[in-house]
Amino acid sequence: MELSIGEMALIAIAIVVLFGPDKLPQIARDLGSGVRKMRGAVEDIKTEILKETDNPVSEIKKEIEKVKDAAKDFNPMKNIEENIINEPSSTPESPKIKPADDETYEGPVSR
């Protein structure tokens, strides 16, 4: 927003008429202080925004590291081996009969 010289003069005359010439220096100081505070606030906001935009990337990297650590300790065969070793067989296996000892064994049939 650009102000012309005529517009700035009109604003200055309005301020002098409203507040008087003796309050003009105090108003200028307060206005300058307000502008400095606003600039500081804008810088703080800009810093926070930059920090937050960089933050998700680092959070994703942390999550990836957690998954990698969990994958190092994961062994799917370990559970299977433990189940096989620790559980007794639910069906006892009968001893296998050799075909020579089995009278009902007919062998391969060809047709």
TrEMBL record:
GO MF annotation terms: protein transmembrane transporter activity
Primary subcellular site in the record, as a coarse category: membrane
Residues covered by region (Disordered): 78-111
Entries under InterPro entries matching the protein: TatA/B/E, TatA/E
Listed GO CC annotations: TAT protein transport complex
Keyword vocabulary terms for this entry: Cell membrane, Membrane, Protein transport, Translocation, Transmembrane, Transmembrane helix, Transport
Membrane topology summary: Single-pass membrane protein
HAMAP family listed in its UniProt record: TatA_E
Subunit structure as annotated in this protein's UniProt entry: Forms a complex with TatC.
Family: Belongs to the TatA/E family.
Record-given protein name: Sec-independent protein translocase protein TatA
Organism, scientific name: Chryseobacterium formosense
